Amino acid sequence: MVADIRTTLGSTPFDGRAFRWRMGVRALPPSEWLQIDDDREVDLLEKEALLTSCYDEVVAFDAANGVAESEVFDLTVRALESRGISPRSQPGPHPVVDAARSIQEDVCILERRNGEWVLTAGVVCFPTRWNLAEKIGLPIGQIHAPVPGIDSISPTIDRFFDRMIRGSLVVRTNWSLTDDPSLRLEPQPNRAPATLPHDPSSGIWLRVERQTIRKLPDSGAICFTIRVHRWVLGDVIEQLSAKTMAAGLAAIPIDVAEYKDIDGIRMGLIKLLTRL
Q1: What does R_g of the chain's alpha carbons equal in angstroms?
Q2: Which of 87-96, 134-143, 193-202 has the lowest mean pLDDT?
């Protein structure tokens, strides 16, 4: 059974508004922090295999706050046990790794240092074309530096984190289109521009990161989780407005479309969607 996009995300990636970078957050009840579904066993097996085979690629630390790591583990255990699920490991030297082993989300910790929010710990098994080792220890602005135009909201992100009440939790989404439904998408800097496949409905995937931002009550650090969802285009068209999706694609600036690696397929998709 195909998961419902709106139910899974609590929103739709395409809302008909003019394009601009925005945080787009909404409050989230603690009971909805983590998502657990029928893919859990398969996802956790893949995550464990990555933690075993390439630990240094999927885990990174930069003098992370031990209190923050322990908080993340404790919150994870409580969230799982509230749903009748036991954690898969006990806290070791890095409790955030043990927390990540039990959930489908990737987990990052950001801490306030020298007036900036810095990525100090991460367990990222399922990235969307980025490298954790290149981001660890960097402030928000530098983490997002490759994204065209994102510098306009980097200060907003810092202020938002500053103003969050300890214990508060919000959620947002970030989408991309890909011809690869894999959970783990490693960086491919020399990847040729994509072309529209013969049957886009089965060859193009909407990939959405459901991102939660939680200000930890004791340390005041930020716990940032990323859960990857994928829907083949045919299912997206059945569930969402094709014309709204087409309008959203058309509104994206060229440099952003190139960054998202969709410039080669965008016009073809817009034509397809507007005919539906």
Answers
A1: 19
A2: 193-202
